[in-house]
Design goal:
Two copies of one chain form a homodimer. Chain A has helices at residues 19-23, 41-54, 62-72, 116-121, 146-152, 201-212, 224-228, 258-267; strands spanning 5-7, 26-34, 37-38, 79-86, 103-110, 123-127, 162-166, 172-175, 179-184, 187-191, 216-220, 232-237, 241-248, 251-252. Chain A is α+β, with helices and mostly antiparallel strands. Chain A has two domains: 2-110, Aminotransferase class 4, branched-chain amino acid transferase, N-terminal domain (D-amino Acid Aminotransferase, Chain A, domain 1, 2-Layer Sandwich); 116-267, D-amino Acid Aminotransferase, Chain A, domain 2 (Alpha-Beta Barrel), CATH 3.20.10.10.
Chain lengths: 271, 271
């Protein structure tokens, strides 16, 4: 374990009084590290700061996070980094003192191996029965992830690459581990998230690239029917980048070249 | 730390891959231990089993939990026990294997010292601005507690003993760390929780005792106005037992003897 895990830059133990462990009181962020460099770091760090502020944790300094990455990621090979920023250690109870100081955790894991077919033919999605509920913690990638975990139990194994989550009114919001887009002609739509959902870093970069490629981008409220009638569907996250969807329910899509183009651009973004 | 904390019955480290730490994927339960005996254990264990099942964790055996308590609580003095049952350790990601085995954590902390005035005169409550949202995890004492933590930040220090949480429609549901009751004559009302809220063990015992004392008990939907017009308000949890409320907003109540009677009965319940 010791080589896979840092707390505040050292190989410590996790305290049972750390509030991440006791209450999920913190935020996290997952990203690719290659050649000791975290990919799309500027965007990830910005989101770490925003998410910490949203739950009133003083954000960690960028230099501390970068130094952690240097210390833990020695190999050139692509791997996954995950920062957890917890509110820190406190006595039992929801209350904490003003003097509390956040803890930062860095975890290193292997890069997941996605089947070649994912990129060659696209992926299937399931539509989750579980609906998203509004939350006071809108948009924050916090450590309270039981709803995602319960939704992920709706199917076994890897038959579906991800599950579509709808809100209470049946509007498409996101997937359990990714954001979702649909293309209709030269316009790309992505769900408006004004009451639920998390806007990922790759979602932001996808929008940026789509504009460069001459697409119109619209945030919109739409239901599953509309999604199924679209010309093309994509999902995005920090690890697999962009994947085309080849099947949702009985609707199939032919493989197209756009997802590959997006991935190429994503890998070569100079940020 | 080593004497304050057990994992699966031994003095281990917390793995950064434990899902309680990564996602709040687990449940917890707080109770008093006195003379090495956990108070109201039958009820607490029943709730541990129910909560585990609600999020599809195989519950721990009662004998394992009781043996943990024997191992960690050596003193006769009253102290606080807290069990955390996590889904266990897995790779990064919401998915987990069927073979996953739960981890049980037992934490020992000092009994909080409540001011004598709490029991002598009653306590003040604040009404939290933050509203409760419905959740798929209705009634489960799970580790996703960021909403409680955000609500607890609405006031500093101990000026208020707890904060009242309303649902989206303004109905009284519970407090951040306790359940709530109101007495009108010989009837005691407590909020109906069919979409939000957690029914605590002491809530259940309070109802039991109230019936023994000849009160009618009703679960009902009511708003703050109704609460403020009642004859007496109580809050309950496993650590302080029953407290009378002496003030909410501009409404004050005279101290009465009922809360003390409830506490006496609670301490002497033979369960």
């Amino acid at each position: 374990m010791s080589k896979q895990f840092l707390i505040n830059g050292t190989f410590q133990k996790i305290s049972p009084f750390d509030r991440a462990f006791q209450y999920g009181d913190g935020i996290f962020r997952t990203f690719i590290v290659e050649n000791k460099k975290p990919r799309h770091w500027k965007y990830h760090y910005k989101k770490i700061v925003e998410d910490c502020r949203a739950i009133k944790i003083t954000p960690p300094k960028e230099s501390a996070l970068l130094s952690d990455i240097q210390l833990l990621f020695k190999a050139k090979k692509r791997a996954v980094g995950k920062f957890i920023i917890s509110r820190g250690v406190s006595e039992r109870g929801y209350k904490f003192n003003d003097t509390i100081t956040h803890n930062r955790f860095l975890i290193k894991t292997k890069m997941p191996i996605y089947p070649n077919e994912y990129f060659k033919f696209g992926v299937d999605l399931i539509v989750c029965k579980q609906r998203l509920h509004p939350s006071v913690l809108l948009g924050v990638k916090h450590l309270n992830r039981l709803e995602n975990i319960m939704a992920r139990q709706e199917w076994k194994g890897d038959r579906y690459a991800d599950g579509i989550l709808l809100d209470q009114d049946g509007h498409v919001i996101e997937c359990i581990s990714s954001n979702i887009f649909m293309r209709i002609g030269k316009t790309i739509y992505t769900p408006k998230m004004n009451h639920v959902g998390i806007k990922g870093v790759t979602r932001e970069l996808f929008i940026k690239i789509a504009k460069q490629l001459g697409f119109k981008i619209k945030e919109a409220i739409f239901n599953l029917d509309k999604l199924l009638k679209s010309d093309e569907v994509f999902i995005t996250n920090s690890l697999f980048g962009v994947l085309q969807v080849k099947k949702i329910k009985n609707r199939s899509w032919q493989h197209q070249e756009l997802a590959s183009l997006f991935n190429h651009k994503l890998e070569n973004l100079n940020i």
